[in-house]
What we know:
Forms a complex composed of PxpA, PxpB and PxpC. This protein is an alpha/beta fold. It contains eight helices and nine strands.
Amino acid sequence: MDINSDLGESFGAWRMGDDAAMLRVVTSANVACGFHAGDPAGILQTLRGAAERGVVVGAHVAYPDLVGFGRRNMDPASHELVADVIYQIGALQGLAAAAGTRVRYVKPHGALYNTIAQDERQAQDVITAILAVDPGLTLLALAGSPLVGWARARGLSVMAEAFADRAYNDDGSLVSRRLPGAVLHDAEQVARRMLQLVQTGELPSISGRRVRIEADSICVHGDSPGAVEMAQRIHATLSGAGVALRPFAV
Length: 250
């Protein structure tokens, strides 16, 4: 199983998360590309840290929304969205090369991630952008979403992910952050849930029903309170149960 986290999101004097600590725990790092968060110097520092720790790097592409942290819905024209995603991947590729590593996958962020999980037009735009840059890149997508099938139909390698710190609806979708109980904070509870996921392929929904989730990676949001402790507890719990932890992309 892979453990990933969203990193490189600090911006100037605004600090987001603890990248150095998280890089000691995760196997993959979704690194911001400057559209929703991150400045070039900070992104480069995170990439160097990933290279030193042997953590695989992915481009965390987003809508151009620094003020809203990429969590506001947008409806860009296709030519704009394709160009925006190409631009972000390319920028991260350059910084990654300077840091002694390379971009191996793409994981959309926030509102873009949630939109393309269901919106075929925007999903196809993101797929087109990835294929234009490097068809060998892997797409990290929401487990069970239509996006997985759309991307595979066009020849992209796709890995599915589950979210450690988010609650699920009965249909396997994520509970909206606007609703109570959407974000989980108890590290021990989260670790037990992730072990259950790995062992059974299921998680309890917010209503208590069993939901089938086929995931290749577990995400811990780097900006969540207690994110490092949560990732550490997941890592220890899975390792202690004999689960091999390794990046999904090589």
